[in-house]
Amino acid sequence: MLLALCLVMPAMASAQTPGYLIENIEDGDTITVNIDGESRRIQLSGIDAPEDSENAKLKLDMQKKGLSKEALLEIGALATGFLKREATVGQRVTLQGDLSQRDKYGRIPAIALNQQGDSLNLLMVREGYAILLKRYPLEESFRTALEEAQQHARSSKRGLWKSHPEIMAKWSGL
Predict the structure, then answer these.
(1) Nearest Cα to 46, choosing from 157, 156, 152, 120?
(2) N-terminal to C-terminal alpha carbon distance within the chain
(3) Which helix (H) or strand (E) covers residue 110, if one does?
């Protein structure tokens, strides 16, 4: 009986833990979570991380920024690697935003909070692995926090601003 209780209690606790289960870290600004039994792609709203695979966005960045595919894929892999260390598959996140909305890539834009209540969006920018994405509306206080985090990451040479400053300057347009 005690053995059965020990086996059931962790499963019950897991089912009661709030938030959504991370199923995949797609890249530095996209995760997949389980919402009501379905996999949903979440775009970490307000941020842009470099691409880590060949796709239409990578080609667009190459054309617009004048950077090589190899350079962009290198910093993209580093950004994705950082997010994978901070948000692991099987972890739960809380999502803030309208989960019925979709961006042009079919993703749900949202702020993802880890189990400690920290924004993964803000973390990626603060640690220098993503930049503020200005083209979509954001709550003013969140936009300000992202702007300040980006300025700090750049001036203190964090993450990609330290390892690849020239590439980041061109890619970010700063």
Answers:
(1) 120
(2) 63
(3) strand 108-113
Which value, to the nearest 10 degrees, does the dihedral of the CA atoms of residues 42, 50, 152, 126 take? 30
- Tens-digit pLDDT profile for residues 110-154: 999 999 999 999 999 999 999 999 887 899 999 999 999 999 999
* CA atoms of 88 and 157, how far apart (whole Å): 25
* Residue 134 structure tokens: 């200005």
Pairing of strands 47-48, 131-132: antiparallel
* 89-106 as b/e: b if 16+ CB within 10 A: eebbbebeeebeeeeeee
Best CA proximity match to 83, nearest among 29, 156, 133: 29
Tell me the pTM: 0.88
**CB within 8 A of 19, min separation 6: which ones?**
92, 93, 94, 95, 113, 115
DSSP for 123-143?
HHHHTTS-EE-TTS---HHHH
Q: Decide if pLDDT at 10 tops 50.
A: no
Partner residues linked to 47 by β-bridges: 132
> DSSP letter string over 5-58?
HHHHHHHHHHHHS-SEEEEEEEETTEEEEEETTEEEEEEETTEE---SS-SHHH
Distance (Å, rounded) from C-alpha 45 to C-alpha 163?
A: 25
